[in-house]
Amino acid sequence: MRLLCTLLLGLFVAVGSAHAQASAVDAKEYQEVIDKAYRFLKSAQNPDGSIAPKLGGPGVASLVIAGLLRNGKSVDDPVVKAALKYLEASVQKDGGIYNKMFANYSTSVAIFALADANQNKQYDKIIATATKFIKSLQFPDESGDMIDAKAGGVGYNGGPKDRPDLSNTHYFVEALLASGASKDDPAIQQALKFIGRCQNLPGESNPLPFAKKASDDDKGGFTYAPTAGPDSDAQTPAGGLRSAGSMTYAGLKSFLYAGVSKDDPRVKAAVDWVRRHYTLDENPGQGKGGLYYYYQLFAKALDALGEDPFTDAKGQKHAWRAELFAKLKSLQQKDGSWVNSDRRYGESTPELATAYALLALAYVRPKN
Questions:
Q1: In this model, does residue 188 exceed pLDDT 50?
Q2: pLDDT band, very low/low/confident/very high, at 157 (cuts 50, 70, 90)
Q3: Do the domain assignments include residue 6?
Q4: 3-state secondary structure the chain
Q5: Which tens digits make up the pLDDT trace of 249-270?
Q6: pTM for this structure?
Q7: Does the pLDDT of residue 181 top 60, yes or no?
Q8: Domain that holds residue 199
């Protein structure tokens, strides 16, 4: 009986903690931030429904759709509705949703945006053909007994000259799961093997030489691509590959979304890295580069992990949702946008940075 009471008390404490986390963000402040962002995006949208189309075709519009829907807008909202029509107009004959470049990235984010909007199953066919298309871009495992670092990964456009990377592959996994694919889908399982090869964790999941050369600081974290050569800025003097915050959260998110146990050594190592590098002041390993991309991955991964508050390596407990909201609110511009002074990765384009910020904010949204 005492054990049962203890277990129930633990359950109530956990539920209460999660509820307190969700309630830690003031609803009025949150809505003011969202409304300002919405007004900016409405002013930035083009007559055809596109948003910053020069930066990856329909990719930014897809991120905006998902960000707005996850923060309370409906599919009938004018900005969302126009952007959805633009996505439909961007469907190619091969089933992809892109414009000349970034085929996997654009199609993957379009899939989870359309899945969010698919209340009446009106996008079932588009999602199905788009899912088939991105699967065709995945690098097959044709190595036999050899270790093929590329196998299971996905790059921007597919084809033998493409290079798979973790950024494209985590969106690929998220898109397949959003489309309704089983966690046991062979494409997802192959992608997880590739993601494991991006982790600085030597062993069965990553037998590549760079993992054995990782510094203590990099161990457990993830790098952008396991095929990076000596000219890569990710390579360390010892011949390893540096871990980055955005990539570590991307890898952790992918494992958790795909049902990998929190007790799995890969997950535990990633969480340990996050504990040692917990911050909202920068994208660890990249400084300000990709900061808003980092914020949305930070939010997705910690939400999936379910540790509220999150305890860092020094034992400090973080109400991470409240901390993330405070950081994003402090960085919002007067016109409602977010923008990164670091021009890497496109975030000096405010429409992209704002879309990422909205995706992050969806995980701090106060409970009704």
A1: yes
A2: very high
A3: no
A4: CHHHHHHHHHHHHHHHHHHHHHHCCCHHHHHHHHHHHHHHHHHHCCCCCCCCCCCCCCHHHHHHHHHHHHCCCCCCCHHHHHHHHHHHHCECCCCCECECECHHHHHHHHHHHHHHHCCCCCCHHHHHHHHHHHHHCCCCCCCCCCCCCCCCCECCCCCCCCCCEHHHHHHHHHHHHHCCCCCCCHHHHHHHHHHHCCECCCCCCCCCHHHHCCCCCCCCCECCCCCCCCCCCCECCCCCECCEHHHHHHHHHHHHHCCCCCCCHHHHHHHHHHHHCCCCCCECCCECCCHHHHHHHHHHHHHHHCCCCEECCCCCEECHHHHHHHHHHHHCCCCCCCCCCCCHHHCCCHHHHHHHHHHHHCCCCCCC
A5: 999 999 999 999 999 999 999 9
A6: 0.92
A7: yes
A8: 30-361
CATH of the domain at 249: 1.50.10.20
pLDDT tens, 43-60? 999 999 999 999 989 999
Q: Is there a domain that residue 4 lies in?
A: no
Let me know if residue 113 belongs to a domain: yes
Average pLDDT for 282-287: 96
Q: What is the mean predicted confidence (pLDDT) over 181-200?
A: 97
Highest mean pLDDT range out of 78-92, 149-163, 229-243? 78-92
Domain count, the chain: 1
Residue 56: its pLDDT value, please?
A: 85
| Prior bond of 350 cis (ω within 30°) | no
Residue 58 domain flag: yes
